[in-house]
Amino acid sequence: MAQPNNFGFGEEAALLKDSARKFFEEKMPTNQLHALVAGDPTPERMPESLWDKDIWQQMVDLGWTMVAVPEAAGGIGMPVVAVAGLVEELGRAAFPCPLVPTINCTYVLSACGSAGESALGDIAEGKSASLAITNQQGSWSTTDTDVRFENGKLSGTAWYVQDARKVDNFLVSAQSTTGVSLYWVSCDASGVVIDPDAIIDLSRDQAHVTFTGVEAVELAADGSGALDKAFPAIWTVLAADIVGAAEWLLQTTVDYVSTRKQFEHPLGFFQAVKHPLVDVMVQIDQTKSLVYNAACAIDSEPEKALKYAHMAKASASETAAFSSGRAVQYHGGIGFTWECYVHLYFKRQKHNQMLWGDAAWHRRALAGLLLGPIAA
User: What is the pTM of this model?
Assistant: First the structure.
């Protein structure tokens, strides 16, 4: 099946994206975001999970947590291109919430078929969730989990769990007698311990989650297959977040260099400033095209989804680094200060850059797809 025009980004997707932008501009402008998550500049501060639960509940009431849930499971069942548009606006706002982890779980659960319907129903009802599938070495390979399932109970630790202190459930991958299986676990279940990690991103939290004799019911015996099927959407959604944050960084920097004067001219008058900012714009446009191309492939050309998703996340990781670096540089001396809002997005982008694989990892995986296995 060929891709539709405009990546299949229709009127409903556009309305969702526009409403999301207006929502975040009204509910959480950048000055309020900074006051919320950056009130304490002390380097030795303990890891925090700072977010507005009331605004999150409004997002749930708007149905945003169920946009990717299939209609058969009680959700809205919007295409991935629409979800990408929503997440792009979330990235533009750098809004602290568990929307992206919940969407990630939704795609994995959808790939589980009928076995995932009960958990999808929880998400459709407003529950949030995060993937607990990564081992201590940072590998999320479907055979590398540090969690085991024996005698009806989970034991072990899942690492680098995103927004672990904001969610209601974990979707856990664990080694069982049949291979890697998936388990739906409540965060407040007996034996679940959440240990916060110290990360630079103030708009998120991260943790390693230890399971000690946690009673669990197998959700899907073929966890490896479900994860493999869902990863293209997971990478594409994260790349959309990067695009939104990069667009904020570019617009904010352009506004600054248009008003800040030096040598009786705005900074943007000088080629050494405006030309690199054009390079940022071009790179954002390139990444944005790859993101919606990958999202459209998931919707209409699934046989190409993996390849296109690797391309999108590789490009997005480089855009995350480039856009954040230029923004700090062209804000001059104030760009390095805590009071300048740029650091919120710089830190989010650095986290985004490495999360679920950096550019080098995705290009290596893409080369393996196109050329065959790459020797170590």
Answer: 0.95
> Reduced to 3 states, what is the DSSP secondary structure of residue 274?
helix
d(CA 317, CA 238): 10
Between strands 169-176 and 129-132, the pairing is: parallel
Q: Tell me the C-alpha distance between 106 and 116, whole Å.
A: 9
85 close to 14: Cβ distance less than 8 angstroms:
yes
* pLDDT, tens digit, 9 for 90 and up, residues 136-151: 999 987 778 999 999 9
DSSP label at residue 115: G
pLDDT of 332: 85
Secondary structure (DSSP) of 139-185: ---TT--SEEEETTEEEEEEEEEETTTT-SEEEEEEEETTEEEEEEE
- Note whether 166 and 255 are same-domain residues: no
Contact 283, 319 (CB under 8 A): yes
What are the C-alpha distances in Å from 61 to residues 55, 67, 220, 253?
10, 12, 29, 34
Same domain, 72 and 180: no
Do 354 and 229 belong together in one domain? yes
Task: Give a yes or no: residue 376 inside a domain.
Answer: no
The two beta strands, 206-215 and 261-262, are unpaired
Which are the contacts of 362, defined by CB distance < 8 A and separation ≥ 6? Answer: 235, 310, 311, 313, 314, 317
pLDDT tens for each residue of 75-98: 999 999 999 999 999 999 999 999
**Residue 269 amino acid letter:** F
| C-alpha separations of 67 from 59, 75, 245, 342 in Å | 11, 6, 21, 30
What domain range is 10 assigned to?
5-124
Are residue 288 and residue 355 in the same domain, yes or no?
yes
Tens of pLDDT, residue by residue over 246-296, are: 999 999 998 887 776 666 676 655 666 778 888 999 999 999 999 999 999
Q: Specify the number of domains making up the chain.
A: 3
Q: Are residues 138 and 108 in the same domain?
A: no
Q: Where a domain ends, among 124, 143, 173?
A: 124
Do residues 243 and 353 both lie within one domain?
Answer: yes
